[in-house]
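Hi C.,

You asked whether I'd gotten around to modeling the 552-residue construct. I have! Everything is below, sequence then structure, no commentary in between.
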Amino acid sequence: KSLAEGASVRAVCFPAACATAASFDRNLVYRIGEALGEECQALGVHVLLGPGINIKRSPLCGRNFEYFSEDPMVAGELGAAFVNGVQSKGAGTSLKHFFANSQEHRRMDISSEMDERTMREIYLTAFEIVVKKAKPWTVMASYNKIDGIYSTANKKYLTEVLRGEWGYDGLVMSDWGATHERAAAVEAGCALTMPAAADTDMEIVNAVKNKTLSEEALDKACMQLLTLAIKAAENQKEGIVFDYEKDHALARTAAADSIVLLKNDNDILPIKETQKAAFIGGFAENPRYQGGGSSHINSYKVGSALENARNLGYTVYFAKGYDEKNTEPDEELLREAVAVAKKADVAVVFAGLPDAMESEGVDRRHMRMPESHNALIEAVCGANPRTIIVLHNGAPVEMPWVQQPAAILEAYLGGQAVGEAVVDVLYGKVNPSGHLPETFPKKLADNPSYLSYFGEGDRVRYDERYYVGYRYYVSKQMEPLFPFGYGLSYTQFTYSNLMLQKNEIKDTEELTVFVTVTNTGNMAGKALVQLYVAPPAEEVLRPVRELKGFEK
């Protein structure tokens, strides 16, 4: 079909990475990758621009919704599962943004600067895992500089580390408009400049003539481009038609399995089907389900929680609660919300961050939700002690009201089926099994990068070093609002019989750890096993513990 200028084909909007990371489920992320690979084949797309696996250094990064975690192992393992899923269908991926791209503020020219240990243990690790476990067809070089050299022209990392150390044999491409010197990019190992830059093609020719660019480097770039083109052609399948409804159902499953139950006093959840519920807040009717910027999807359809609950025959009242275009409280809407909350057995407030508050290209300046959302939560909690909060947001938010509601669900940006998934969890059709892939601090100033995050001029120093996220909070003995890896269930699990395969290993060996997990509650559920390693006391500074294994 012909498309209007700038329009995109209708597709299925799966949950964003901020949500799927909370599943901690490699198999689920692989299945999403498979579905996207099928959609790529059906639409003639050779390379999918993702996944984004940059480390969540601060809750403020405007693009955090596109990234998996503050922990490099989680980002790497789930990133590899995604890449393997997509590429199993004969479509390629573009692993991005390589690397040290953890902010949007001055993203086009900021220089990320850190010591090598920090780089190796945190910011390169996720990329290394994906490259070695999944072999993405392409890697996308980021906008920023690293130690003063643009990523697209940084031979140390594009060639010496990526290819020399990790054995990568695919193609390196630039982010859109990230190439500043064509010849320098080719020499560094960035073969493809995006978008097309015919006006600078002669720079490459002249550089070879002037011997400032080696013919060998140019030959390598040409070979990588031709190899990618041939691979794309050979893997193109004819007659592929993907099933929108099937993929929507998978998106619903993924969203439900990624929802995190943060609080559930007196087992108020799940809601009984016979109870009268009040759904309050504009997101109940029009959910915030995806982020802004280049990742925006032209969704096939969007299911709302309100519509879905009513279609299932549940008794649900509705009040708008806030004006989505105004961050200040609306007294009339608050009065209506309180009245509706009082006549219901349980009240469910849908709140979070509007589109305008987090998007590609701009970082947040604080962690607060709109005052209209906070005021609504406090008013409804005051009117009905059996209040449940459902949050739609791509990154952590402050919760000054956290003690007031009986239950809190973190739904993140759950894709086009998030409304249905939330109802599945609210009414117990799905037992929530998500866990936080990032720390929710009590306030922004608690974050380890707080003093240096935006940088100074065109330089940003990663002064917190490897004390990123939970590595810092645990080592500092600083209690967060909700810790990394946290998530409740409608059932209970016990962990017992922890055993190690060996008592000692060399640094070249692997260790298998066994544990027995038992569901001791009254409902089927999914447990997440998290394995942390605590280093022995020594002269080298280390976080108190670090995640080294996980299984859903």
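If it helps when you're writing up: The CA atoms of residues 342 and 384 lie 6 Å apart.

Thanks,
B.
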